[in-house]
Design a protein that fits this description.
Elements (H helix, E strand, L loop, with lengths): L9 H4 L8 H5 L7 H9 L6 E5 L2 E4 H18 L6 E5 L4 H12 L3 E4 L6 H11 L3 E5 L3 H4 L10 E5 L7 H9 L14 E3 H6 L17 E7 L7 E6 H14 L7 E4 L6 H13 L3 E4 L8 H8 L3 E4 L1 H8 L14 E4 L6 H13 L6 E7 L4 E5 L12 E2 L4 E5 L13 E6 L6 E2 L3 H7 E3 L5 E11 L5 E6 L4 E2 L5 E2 L1 H8 L5 E10 L7 E9 L7 H14 L8 E4 L13 H15 L1
Parallel strand pairs: 1-11, 3-4, 3-5, 4-8, 5-6, 6-7, 10-11, 10-12, 12-13, 13-14, 26-27
Antiparallel strand pairs: 1-2, 8-9, 9-19, 14-15, 15-16, 17-18, 18-21, 20-21, 21-22, 23-24, 25-26
């Protein structure tokens, strides 16, 4: 097959295919549920280790047995095909069992970020009509007061310590576990151990039949207005992303994968859990990750593969535990969720080489609406500054913003993607779906990313900037300025406000949100007022969405057409940050 003849239109040329084998290009995508594809990939390797949780190894055979037990028990609770089961969880073995049990029954996982505020959790549970909520015990204190106002009838309570090795669990219960407010073991609350024990007398749960457009999960993301939207990911789409990585990367069964990405983001759900398990890897589950602990985790587990955000690799380079350490075990050093500066990428590559890792910085690009990843660097194509080439079944092209006019190579425009990993739609939001998923004259549906970039003649994608005002924190979390602004504007002292991103004071990657405030007459800047505004924000917003600094001004700068001049405010924020450094 000749992939070199070019017309000047990437969507027709697909020059990136020269980096893929014919086998990968022609490989069919599985017409199965997530559960069925996971089984198909591992049914002949049931003795291999699927999960490692604080040193507790769980084989693929045990994984499937526990998924089947959980499916029986959920069916006994009344969970049926098409039902939506809400979840507030982190990476634990019971979380994995729950996700695949729900999927086996043909139900949908509605995975809610537990760090969001209680009212938002309530709204998402009720919008989904969930009668069953799967809850990690550490979040019980947050949601206990809103549960009576939800449609939830049963709460399955998971424990961080349940699957820890005995010695580790005892230590955990005597320290951190003592601080957790325990859910009651009666009424609507059902501890996981009792939930599973009740299933033993039940018949096996039948596996729901597969349909190509069947939803597997609702994963929440921010939108251009700052309002989170639930992207409905299909079984077909989630599997498609996993398969394309199995085809394009050189992972070997029984290698290990360090999983620090939470399951409530697409990066974690698709790329952190499902993809490595479908590759036959050992998934090392880290329920609560602190960047300062990255060195200890590498020394302890020696993972073959790892994904994080660029800031994690900056932390690695300065980590005391990794000085003079041999990282020859690390075959994949993957990063996404944020742009990485060229100088930082080069420094990471030098660090990996110095520590004998065979990997360079493996970058990627994607969106929740695309099932996490749509583009990746490979061992054959990893240009510095790029985010790689489209996954083998994807097509990425550059369009003139606001039009269907496709640009040619090296021309900057909006990055648009079409491929099998695309979401079905936003849950209960057709208007927002139409804004991002657009059918072009070629008959294909294209996801419009809102990002500006270009593609070179090799089919390699480079991201220049974002059309949206999203602020990406150092840990990869997206912060939407308009959401913060709407909260600040409700404070009685605030006349006007604008939120922009300021440089991360602890590294070159990521930004922090800062707010510029105009006070109403009768109010003046004071430490007490700042504390009051901050408390107001923290009451109304998730922890990571609160402005980290407040600047006061007599008026907001405006552009010639009367709009707030955010670019000037960003320059001011950079100057303020430089003055403090």
């Amino acid at each position: 097959m000749d992939h070199k003849q070019q017309t000047g239109r990437p969507s027709i040329d697909r020059p990136w295919l020269k980096y893929y084998s014919e086998e990968a290009i022609k490989a069919p995508l599985p017409e199965r549920t997530m559960y069925a594809y996971l089984w198909e990939q591992n049914k002949d390797h049931l003795d291999d280790i699927a999960l490692n949780y604080y040193g507790h190894s769980i084989s693929y055979g045990s994984l499937f047995s526990r998924v089947d037990d959980a499916a029986k028990a959920m069916y006994g609770l009344g969970v049926r095909k098409g039902d939506i089961v809400s979840m507030c969880v982190l990476n634990t073995p019971e979380t994995v069992y729950s996700i695949y049990a729900v999927n086996k029954l043909g139900a949908v996982c509605n995975i809610i970020e537990p760090r969001t505020n209680a009212d938002q959790i309530k709204a998402r549970v009720n919008a989904a009509g969930s009668k069953v909520l799967i809850l990690l015990d550490v979040f019980y204190g947050k949601i206990k007061d809103i549960l009576p106002d939800t449609c939830v009838e049963k709460v399955l309570v998971l424990s961080l310590g349940a699957s820890m090795p005995l010695a580790v669990r005892i230590g955990f219960e005597l320290t951190k576990g003592r601080k957790i407010e325990k859910a009651p073991r009666n009424g609507s609350f059902l501890p996981w151990d009792r939930f599973i024990s009740q299933s033993r007398s039940l018949p096996p749960a039948r596996e729901a039949p597969y349909k190509k457009d069947s939803a597997a999960a609702i994963i929440y993301t921010g939108g251009t207005t700052g309002t989170p939207k639930g992207a409905m990911l299909s079984n077909y789409g989630v599997n498609a992303v996993a398969v394309q990585y199995v085809l394009g990367l050189h992972q070997k069964r029984r290698e290990s994968f360090l999983n620090i990405m939470p399951p409530f983001i697409a990066y974690g759900f698709v790329f952190g859990l499902h993809t490595p398990l479908c590759s036959g890897l050992t998934n090392i589950l880290i329920p609560s990750f602190r960047p300062s602990e990255i060195g200890k985790l590498f020394v302890k587990y020696k993972p073959s593969h790892y994904i994080g955000v660029p800031a994690h690799f900056e932390q690695m380079m300065s980590c005391r535990e990794l000085q003079n350490k041999d990282l020859s075990f690390l075959y994949t050093a993957g990063m996404g969720g944020d742009r990485v500066a060229v100088a930082v990428e080069e420094a990471i590559n030098a660090f990996l080489l110095e520590h004998h890792s065979p990997s360079k910085a493996m970058k990627g690009y994607g969106m929740t609406e695309l099932g996490s990843s749509a583009c990746t660097t490979t061992i054959h194509c990893n240009k510095v500054g790029s985010v790689g080439i489209p996954l083998v079944k994807n097509t990425i092209s550059i369009f003139e913003p606001g039009t269907e006019h496709e640009l040619t190579y090296d021309q900057e425009g909006e990055v648009c993607i079409t491929g099998p990993g695309m979401m079905l739609k936003y849950y209960n939001d057709p208007a927002e779906t139409e804004k991002v998923a657009k059918t072009h004259q070629d008959g294909r549906v294209w996801i419009h990313s809102g990002d500006i970039g270009y593609m070179d003649k090799d089919g390699v994608l480079f991201i220049i900037d974002r059309m949206k005002r999203v602020i990406i924190r150092p840990d990869g979390h997206n912060v939407w300025p308009s959401q913060i602004e709407s909260v600040l504007a409700r404070h009685p002292a605030v006349e006007a406000c604008a939120v922009v991103g300021a440089p991360n004071p602890e590294g070159e990657n990521g930004q922090i949100p800062v707010a510029f405030l105009v006070l109403k007459q009768g109010f003046s800047k004071s430490d007490r007022l700042i504390q009051d505004i901050d408390a107001h924000s923290k009451k109304c917003l998730p922890e990571r969405d609160v402005a980290l600094a407040y600047y006061f001004c007599d008026s907001l700068p405006l552009t010639p057409v009367g709009k707030v001049d955010y670019r000037l405010l960003e320059q001011t924020a950079r100057s303020e940050a430089a003055a403090l450094s």
